[in-house]
Write a structure and sequence with these properties.
Number of strands: 3
Number of domains: 1
Helix content: 40-55%
Number of helices: 3
Radius of gyration: 18 Å
Distance between the termini: 60 Å
């Protein structure tokens, strides 16, 4: 490792250690967003990224939802679902997203796919 990268590596390691300190045991990360607790923009983005990953994983785990057709965006715990899916999947995807811990609001902008002729 180059000498110039050592301070950066140490700073990253210290950030990870400090992020894990002080969190009460039994509390799931991301359940309360940093935005609700007056967190920094970086913390809010990290919470949103983790929440987006959990929503995407839950959608992908459901065999009856075409997760690849759904775009998930998250902003301060507000989840937006967008895309074109079969009509029966719209409410199912909405319910899956609402069931994820940390989701404050779901904006369902999914549109029904046109039936093929």
């Amino acid at each position: 490792m180059k000498p110039t990268r050592i301070p950066l590596a140490l700073a990253c390691a210290a950030t990870l250690v400090l992020a894990a300190c002080g969190e009460p045991s039994g509390v799931e990360r991301g359940v309360t967003t940093a935005a609700e607790n007056g967190g920094s923009p970086l913390t809010v983005r990290a919470d949103d990224a983790a929440l987006k990953a959990r929503v995407n994983a839950a959608l992908a785990a459901d065999e009856k939802v075409e997760a690849k057709a759904i775009t998930v965006t998250v902003n301060r715990g507000e989840v937006k679902l967008d895309g074109v899916v079969p009509a029966d999947q719209i409410t199912r995807a909405d319910a899956i997203a609402r069931d994820i811990s940390g989701v404050q609001v779901v904006i369902n902008a999914l549109r029904p796919a046109q039936p093929s002729s």
